[in-house]
């Protein structure tokens, strides 16, 4: 397999970003979470599409 499929978003980093400087959790705005979700879906779809195309090319050769 050319491209190993995996999650490309680091959820631990995202969780860290939603904490204040003392380390207490901060509730993100709904609009921020919606935008994050849209970006996650787009990134996963793109990675899966590229992986599929690379697998198809690999099988041809």
From TrEMBL:
Keywords: Kinase, Transferase. It comes from the Bacteria. GO terms for molecular function: kinase activity. This is Putative GTP-pyrophosphokinase. It comes from Secundilactobacillus oryzae JCM 18671.
């Amino acid at each position: 397999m050319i491209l190993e499929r995996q999650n490309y978003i680091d959820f631990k980093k995202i969780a860290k970003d939603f904490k204040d400087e003392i380390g207490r959790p901060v509730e993100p705005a709904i609009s921020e979470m919606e935008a994050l979700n849209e970006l996650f879906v787009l990134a996963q779809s793109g990675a899966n599409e590229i992986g599929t195309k690379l697998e198809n090319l690999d099988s041809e050769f």
